[in-house]
Specification:
Layout: H1 9-30, E1 34-37, E2 40-43, H2 44-67, H3 72-91, H4 95-117, H5 122-127, H6 135-162, H7 165-185, H8 188-194
Antiparallel strand pairs: 1-2
Helix pairs in contact: 1-2, 1-7, 2-3, 3-4, 4-6, 6-7, 6-8
């Protein structure tokens, strides 16, 4: 299999983010339509969710074939998409799919919390190659990411329960990604302070 470092960056990003953007576009296209299948009426959101599941699985299969690797986060996300997306379609109830991000962020936050209680940074195990930090830096960053995950879980609950489906879809597509990106942008000071240098100036 191909080495992940040799995969074209644009192709990799398209496979990772393409399904979510496709979900957003398809929802905008079908949101006001109702489809009758087998005598049951399905809103556009439910039909788009049904289509999103195989698209996501196919994109992840392509990523695995190209890189020979899928992160634990990707695998957990895929499982929850299948479970909650399947429940949404089977029960014809969009609430299950809207709850999915809540559960994802709660699980990730809880996993980081368990690692911290064991004196370990499980975030380091999945991101060390991207950001080489000293152990103290990883522990601080892990605590902060843990609270971000819990905060996003709460935020998702507030938005899908109090706002329209269109607002929630926009939030899920762009808001969650922007929030995570914005958080890491604010951690520049931590990265500078705890970065592992090629050579220790004190030596």
């Amino acid at each position: 299999m191909a080495d992940g470092n040799q995969v074209n960056g644009g192709l990799k990003s398209a496979l990772e983010f393409g399904p979510v953007l496709a979900f957003f576009v398809a929802y905008l296209w079908l949101k006001d339509r109702t489809f009758t299948i087998g005598g049951t009426d399905y809103e556009g959101f439910v039909l788009v969710t049904a289509g999103f599941i195989p698209v996501l699985l196919l994109s992840m299969a392509a990523l695995w074939k190209l890189t020979g690797h899928l992160s634990r986060m990707q695998v957990v996300t895929a499982v929850l998409v299948v479970v909650f997306g399947g429940l949404t379609v089977w029960l014809n109830d969009d609430r299950f799919f809207k709850m999915k991000p809540t559960l994802i962020y709660l699980l990730f936050g809880a996993a980081l919390a368990i690692g911290l209680m064991r004196g370990e940074s499980w975030l380091q195990s999945v991101m060390e190659g991207v950001m080489p930090l000293r152990r103290e830096g990883w522990m601080i960053l892990t605590k902060r990411v843990m609270w971000v995950f819990f905060g996003l879980a709460v935020l998702n609950e507030i938005i899908w329960r109090t706002m329209s489906t269109e607002v929630w879809v926009t939030f899920k597509t762009f808001g969650l990604t922007a929030a995570v990106f914005g958080f890491f942008m604010t951690q520049a000071g931590l990265f500078r302070t705890y970065a592992i240098e090629d050579q220790d100036p004190a030596e």
